[in-house]
Design goal:
Layout lengths: L6 E2 L2 E5 L5 H13 L4 E3 L6 H14 L2 E2 L4 E2 L5 E5 L20 E6 L12 E4 L5 H12 L5 H14 L10 H12 L4 H8 L5 H13 L1 E5 L2 E10 L6 H12 L3 E8 L2 E8 L6 H7 L3 E2 L3 E7 L3 H15 L6 H4 L7 E2 L4 H11 L3 E5 L6 E6 H9 L24 H10 L4 E6 L2 E7 H8 L16 E4 L1 H7 L2 H17 L2 E5 L1 H7 L7 E6 L2 H12 L2 E5 L4 E7 L5 E8 L1 E4 L8 E4 L2 H6 L9 E3 L7 E4 L3 H7 L1 E2 L6 H4 L2 H13 L2 E2 L1 H12 L8 H12 L4 H11 L1 H5 L7 H18 L9 H9 L5 H10 L4 H27 L3 H8 L4 H10 L3 H12 L10 H6 L7 H14 L6 H30 L1
Parallel strand pairs: 1-5, 2-3, 2-6, 3-4, 6-7, 7-8, 10-11, 15-16, 22-25, 30-31
Antiparallel strand pairs: 9-10, 11-12, 12-14, 13-14, 16-17, 18-19, 20-29, 21-22, 21-28, 23-24, 24-25, 26-27, 28-29
Helix pairs in contact: 1-3, 1-4, 3-4, 3-5, 4-5, 4-6, 7-8, 12-13, 23-25, 23-26, 25-29, 28-29, 28-33, 29-33, 30-31, 31-32, 32-36, 33-34, 36-37
Amino acid sequence: MSQSPRIAAPTLITAHANADFDALAAIVAAGRLYPDAVLVFPGAQERNLRNFFIESATYMFGVRQARDIDLATVRLLVVVDTRQRSRIPHVEAALDNPGLEIHLWDHHPDTDDDLPATFSRVLSWGATTSIIVHELRERGISLTEDEATMLGLGIYEDTGSFTFNSTTPHDFSAAAWLREQGMELNTIAELITRNLTSEQVQTLNTLLETATTHEIRGIPVVIAEASMDAYMGDFAVLAHKMMDMESIKVLFTLARMGDRVQVVARSRLPDVDVGAICKALGGGGHAYAASASVKDKTPQEVRDELFGLLYLAINPEVSARDLMSAPVVGVEEDRSIRDAEEVMNRFGLKAVPVFASGTRACVGYLEYQTATRALTHGLGDMPVTEYMQRKVRVVGRDTALQEVMDIIVGHRQRLVPVVEDDNVVGVVTRTDLINAIVDEPARIPEALLPESRKERNIAPLIAEKLPPSLLALLQRAGRLGERLGVSVYAVGGFVRDLLLDRPNYDLDLVIEGDGVAFARVFAAEVGGRLREHAKFKTALVIFTDENGAEQRVDVATARLEYYEYPAALPTVELSSIKMDLFRRDFTINALAVQLDGAQFGRLVDFFGSQRDMKDKGIRVLHSLSFVEDPTRILRAVRFAVRYDFSIGPQTQRLIKNALGLGLMGRLSGPRIFHELRLILEEQAPVECLARLEHFGVLEAIHPLFKLTPSRTNLLESTEQVLNWYRLLYLDEEPQRWLIYLLALCLNMKYKESASIADRLALPPSARNAFLSTRETLRSTGPKVEKWMREEGPLSELYALLKPLALEGVLHMMARSKSEDLRRHVSQFLTRLQHEKLDINGDDLRAMGLPPGPAYGRVLQHVLAAKLDGHAPTRTVQLECAYTLVQGELAQAMEEGVAQVGRSV
């Protein structure tokens, strides 16, 4: 059956997904303001509303479904009852239409996710429908009885039949006008006053039985919970019932439904904004009615987080002056790190503010952990300004608790200086904040602590994104860990790329226990072999998978690495998964997924990695990261370019600091070459090299490494040529790093190129490939240019290029400015080098030619004739070969006669 053509909709009106009556009513009302528009209903949560829409609204008001619309035709998008992009996924494809205009009608508070608009009408009324009704009345647009009833339904539901405190006089006025237009109250009463099903009655009884009242800052808050196997669409109705039955002022109902916890909140007190609280849980709504759907958390976890949010929300009177510690202990910017460490040690501080010399003006702060690590590396005499956190947010005495919370939690700032007239008069620490939020710090939800274990379960994502064989391998490792009594984690890039939706099946496991012992058993179970590295407490398991392909799994013991001196190889000690992750280079790589037992799929994020991925930022885990391992500088650039992330100002400053200390020069050649090779194998290495040049990294590796204009042009041309070659899907893969290295060494003398090879400590085979290809090109290049000028035959070009390595041919192609030469080299790569003769040695033997070197000479000449178009078929090739064979035989006879004569 053929699919019906989609409907063009130059003007389209819609509302948020999981719509309520106000959303549907606002769509219908907006349809009168935009008479040529197509109305699109996004679907509803509540069963009664869905039934009403399906049975009535489709026919009565001409409402369509998004799947029926050709979204590419939309030029004006009208969105009602929301402004959030994330709440209109059904029309998301239209948001990228060129020249799209967006009109917004809404009554919800502003959010960071709000759409940009060419027109918006946003008022804090009880219902969006009321706002549009006011506009209809102003324009003198009359309504039918059905329209008036539909619009009234939206207003009555969103104002709780005018009982919610969010109701305004404008809502009463809108309803009065709708009544004049024929609004039928009996119909509204039937739809608003719903009879509960037996399932709803049972759930309501559960909510009443589990309801507990908690007095938070003097305000009674009721929290009730229920659990059900299937989704209940009308769950919000039960919250209304409870509020009325028990005369509750503030209510939060939590219901576990499948893989999520549904939260419905109602408030009749201005002191409790349930919309803000539900927004923090991932939902939204009004100050007096809101909801949230929380995935991958238990009701207990949601309840704990809810408590923390309530203590925070019901604390409007608390300000920085109530939290801060004073007087303030700090250090001036000209003091050494050793001095700062002594101060922090004396007073038991985890961080101190840094003041401008001779003042109390804050220019940054230094953490105790950073200071002690710097001392370990012999950097105690460095000024504190070298490793302090420069990007520091300060507040005034009267700054509200919420803003302080945002700085410490949202921006991961260890302490917040409180200033007056630019002078620091106090500091607020994380401990101060926790004690302010709850009287019992143990009850603070983990989600509100930046150093807590930020967890969610990503088992469904793992099952969805990974091949079945890899999923089975993870489960097998988890079961083994459970049997051996150790915790097993997948870590690092594997987890990072899983969250970024990028294929990466290189599996690294970390064991909280004896990783090598685990690897031995694991290797035996998968029928593989083992390579142990006792010094680093790691092992490599190598086995063949079900498809016959070789697979490798790195297994490590959870460990803490410390560096005895800058740029040294790490020394390893046993530790926990948290410390194992802390040793890693960047936050985006400091993630783990637990695999054992019931914890399978638990994502562990101690350091705000998910936030950094969302913000698209590269951030080191501590200020001495580049001092301990300067190769991380190259990795920072590689990851930034690969993922289109940015390197923040603080991390950039730390890169420049490490280079200023000359640490790149202390690195061994193999370590630099390993990282540089990874960069040159990336899809966009030229941009990586440009950023390394900007930081001064290339010159720090070797003084001759400079991106001159000619080298930059050649690198860009090389990237184009390699991208072209990749699209040919030929069997032979070039060594990309070698071609880029040749470009980087453009116009260098042999000794200079050799010094580059020495600095990088290229392995013998790589060194030979680099220098020999370079020298071969120096002699072959002029010959190819001569061939071009003389318009020589293709067989001659073949003879010139065939001895060259593939990397040399591609380098020549990239380096040439002649389109004709590029075309001919392209012809060699795609056709000439693959040409085969239709004859072979057996044919020559049949012609009477004895085996020997003459076979090669004859076949080479015939191949040249074929390449030049003189011997396209086997018949012609045989004729050509016969003539050549006769010549070889005659020459052999002459040489034989001459030999006999000399003997005589």
